Task: structure prediction
Amino acid sequence: MATLNDAYSTYPAMAAVMGDATLLRHMATFEGALAHAQSEAGLVPKDAADVIAAVAAALDFDEEHLFAEAILGGTLAIPFVKSLTAAVRARTPSAAPFVHFGATSQDVIDSALVLQLGQALVLIDADLTRLADGAAKLARAHRTTAMLGRTVLQPATPITFGLKAAQWLAAAADSRARLRARAGEALVAQLGGAAGTLGSLGALGATTAAILFRRLADLNAYPPARDVAVRGTPMPWHTRRGALMALASELAIATGIAGKIARDISLMMQYEVAETFEPAEAGRGGSSAMPHKRNPVRCMLTVSAALRTPGLVATLLTGMVQEHERALGGWQAEWGALPELVRLTAGALANMADTLDGLQVDAARMRANFEALKGLPMTEMLALALAPGLGRAEAFALVEAAAKQVATSGRSLAEIVKADAAATAHLQASEIDAILDPLNALGATQAFIDTALDSWLHRRG
Result:
């Protein structure tokens, strides 16, 4: 059943993917694949492997009972294997001894997690792609839509909204590429046995592990996890969590990227600014007390997720300090933190992808907000234009004095400078107007936008 926490973090699709029922189903997949791998290696009779795989695939788990037993055993794998073994024994008693043969609890749980994360990353990748597509659409449509640049929350020199969107695009595209790379390293199944040696499988342990690795890689829903090549026997990573932590860190980075976009949009959505607006949706963004309000709810949820993920990553990284060949607490700390991180990332990316897809942009208001400052954002350009004739120090002093008059007189910078003989001795009125036009002060903006768009076109695939 969905909870209030789910409503603030994700969509139902990801809640199901990262749920306990899905983990159990992937644990069953592991046991079936293990039995078939051991049969192929010559360790388990084929008939027994077929029975184990069939029973595992069809087993209807009593989740309440399993979780109660897991509290006693410290791991879900113990009651899970007992339940599967009982079901196999009920069908074919001779096959029961081969259930979970030579494996350990961490083999089944981590390998199931890999399959679970593969499913999750299919959804996350899709929403990162949608987010980048939405940003690219805005970058193309508004490449010449002038607006205030803002640094330290104060007016700066002009930019275009297309450039802001191109920055969003580049961030999302880079994160998507890094996630794919990290997934290729992290989503690797494992089989190590009790202490990571596969000693119980003797000379056939390495062969079994290699076969199982290939079988589970083929079953992974996320393509980068299927493309991994391992030389020799895949080594278990029971207490070697670096690759998984790199993936978790990139999930948090992706959430932070979505959070940055949400922060930008919510600031531009303030009534006094009114430059962008979340898509209008029935029932979304209202207030319980003030009927006039249009709250940036998608942005709010996304920023909330971005604020929560660093703490989860800190928990995961802290848990890397694991003892010998099996962790006491560090591995177990991942069980709650990692699924929550995935859910938050998915919710943040989905919310921002939906927002950019229907974002309402008021280009006229962007220009009006710029013009309301009466030329002040262009002081740097004006001073640089006057410097060759007046000298740099004199030019900056002239423009600084003019800027102060704008604040006190209500006149525009153009009016004040055109009335200054020292300025007009070096610049004509038409030249001053051209210098103060934001579209003439965009520098490499168009090249930057083109770079972001071309790169995404190449990388999108």
